[in-house]
User: Which sequence fits this backbone?
């Protein structure tokens, strides 16, 4: 039996009734994990189930994810609940209705090993669009792009995340801005 080593990266996925979208995201996560230079086992995936009424938790468990049940219906609480289970040195967050790039985890570790960074964002492809999502995307992404930043998979050191107290659970939206 090989020793249980702590993962380098913890990916937290807040999810509320995301059974329709979660499998496609997890397909892209699996590809990125298998391409990760540290090895697929160095990345743990945590789905923070925000009191779903569909099969979100069951899908996550069947795909090998750790599941954090978060009863407080607030995305900041879901992110924090998932982060509470994180064992990785680095912690990443992405939404269940997105897709990640195959080199995501290699990029995250390369940035954080360079020094001079406390975190960042990798960019993301949206799985679904609505008028509300498009409006929020424009409000958030256009200003970020104007100063050379991006969103999608947000990442930082877990120790820094814990020191700052996580996401502000008083915010119902834009908690990650």
Assistant:
């Amino acid at each position: 039996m090989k020793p249980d080593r702590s993962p380098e990266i913890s990916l937290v996925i807040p999810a509320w009734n995301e059974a329709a979208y979660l499998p496609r995201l997890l397909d892209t996560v699996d590809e990125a994990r298998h391409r990760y230079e540290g090895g697929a086992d160095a990345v743990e995936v945590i789905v923070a189930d925000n009191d779903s009424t569909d099969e979100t938790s069951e899908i996550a468990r069947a795909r090998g994810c750790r599941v954090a049940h978060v009863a407080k219906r607030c995305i900041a609480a879901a992110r924090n609940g998932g982060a509470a289970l994180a064992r990785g040195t680095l912690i990443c967050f992405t939404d269940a209705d997105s897709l990640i790039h195959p080199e995501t985890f290699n990029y995250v570790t390369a940035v954080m090993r360079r020094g001079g960074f406390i975190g960042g964002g990798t960019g993301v492809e949206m799985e679904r669009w609505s008028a509300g999502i498009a409006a929020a995307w424009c409000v958030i992404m256009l200003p970020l792009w104007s100063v050379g930043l991006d969103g999608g998979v947000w990442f930082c050191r877990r120790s820094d995340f814990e020191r700052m107290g996580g996401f502000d659970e008083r915010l119902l939206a834009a908690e990650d801005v």
